[in-house]
Amino acid sequence: MTNASSRRRRAGFAALLMAGSTLGGLAFWQGDRAFAQSATPPAITAPAVNQAGLPGFADLVARVRPAVVTITTVQRVADQGEQSPFPRGSQQDRNFRRQFGDNQPGRRAAQALGSGFVVDAAGYVVTNNHVVQDAAEVRVTLDDGRELPARVVGRDPRTDLALLKVEAGAPLAFLNLGDSDRARPGDWVVAVGNPFGLGGTVTAGVVSARGRNIGAGPYDDFLQIDAPINQGNSGGPLFGLDGSVIGVNTAIFSPSGGSVGIGFAIPSNMVRMVVADLKEHGRVERGFLGAMTQQVTPQLAEAMRIPTAKGALVAEVTPDSPAARAGLRPGDVITALDGHQVNDQRDLARTVAGVRPGTAVTLGVVRDGQNQELRATLAALTDKAPGSDQASAEQGGREPVGVALAPIDDAMRQQLNLPRTANGAVVAEVRPDSRAAAAGIRPGDVITRVGNQDVANPEQAARAIRERSTGPLALQIVREGRSLFVAVPTKQG
User: Could you point out which of 161, 298, 337, 349 has its C-alpha 20 to 30 Å from the C-alpha of 131?
Assistant: First the structure.
């Protein structure tokens, strides 16, 4: 600001003060006439704000915050060292190495922060899988400041949940998991967590929507909220006004990297089932039917004489699977499972996954316009089950890009409408808040090239991604029959 402009600003401010003094004197004179027995004017007051109906969260937060924790992880990541920018063996290269040393790539420790909460007085802590995945060391900081080493009891990448255990030497304050099915759009919610390392941060908002599918995994059923959550809130609790946990804050939609009022939380009813399995088995046991399905469109419903465009259309039946043994055929539409209405293929996947392996179920099926019932005994879903044979691109402790890959077989070619000669790696899952998610990569994309290297299968794609995982990454993908390139950004921070 110039001196001239400063003088003008001061003059204007002084004029404003003078005007205020003049008006004050006038008011006092008028007041003197109106209130002859008072030497000073009455104090200015504002009408009381009616706070009826406005929620206050302080009492709730005071009750629940002792069970909210900060999670710190240490990962071993690749360090490229001080690399020479000159052609190896050149004079410039030799001069560079004499000055800076011949440092070779190695390993270094990288620290990351997240949130979590205690669900059992014995020291069990819930957080997101992506908070602790690939961590060489996990530590939990309690609300009273104590920092304790944590053991990973189990992880479930399909729902992005993990269960930790700490030994505190005494029972810990813990939280109850509420009934997320009762949460309605418009209900108030409170989030407590550790955004950007600012532990104990409290934010509030409402449930914006239910049942959101954001492409993070096969069982997406997120609560959408507008309570501000940011990096570091992952794994923290989302509370209803009764103080029970109705969700685990997991992801945000953000063009800028910060909160824009669109956050996503895993519903507590899903958390309850996953945590129970992780606590008992160290893994989640899910049912497996063996049918690849697709959405029933209004056009298909009309052509197949289905009353409404609901259900899961069977596109492929895995040989020697529960579906095959039950007599399920391509073209059947599954409309119910044990009396539970099946709205679409994702609803079917979640419902089947929630049934214990070995359980006999009744499938409501529409076949050739006629309603039928079939009995199937579900098997156990494993990583080797057809449709789940995934190769991770996040192995070896290097910086993850956040995708899980599946091979292309004949069933996958048919499902994705690929030519019979198509090769590559199908993106089966995209981890929330990952580099791949930031680049817009979706489940169903087919990776055919990494950098300048063609890839024919998940193993080749995973190896090529790991070799180039420390910087920007160019992927050529096929999406809905179109080939395009996607730039995966360098990880920030």
Answer: 349
Per the annotation, does 176 bind a ligand?
no
Q: Does residue 301 fall inside a structural domain? A: yes
Q: Has 331 been labeled as part of a binding site?
A: no
103 is in an annotated binding site: no
Pair 138, 73: CB distance under 8 Å: yes
DSSP string computed for 295-307? E--HHHHHHTT-S
* pLDDT average, residue stretch 156-170: 95
Which CATH number is 113's domain given?
A: 2.40.10.120
How many domains in the chain? 4
Residue 140 shares a structural domain with residue 278: yes
Domain range for 457: 391-488
State how far the alpha carbon of 337 is from the alpha carbons of 82, 112, 365, 366, in Å: 59, 42, 9, 12
Is 204:57 a contact under the CB 8 Å cutoff? yes
pLDDT number for residue 70: 96
Q: What are the pLDDT digits (tens) for 192-213?
A: 999 998 988 999 999 999 988 8
Is 242 an annotated catalytic residue? Answer: no
Query: If 0-12 CB within 10 Å is exposed, 13-18 middle and 19+ buried, where does residue 254 land?
Result: middle
List, for residues 454-466, the tens digit of each pLDDT value.
888 888 888 888 7
Q: Is residue 277 part of a domain?
A: yes
Q: Of 356, 380, 404, which closes a domain?
A: 380
Active-site option among 115, 180, 208, 234: 234
Catalytic residue flag (residue 208): no
pTM of the model: 0.63
Residues 272 and 298 in one domain: no
Query: Could you confirm whether 338 is annotated as catalytic?
Result: no
Domain assignment present for residue 88? The answer is no
Do β-strands 312-317 and 188-193 pair in parallel, antiparallel, or remain unpaired? unpaired
Tokens of 145: 């400041």
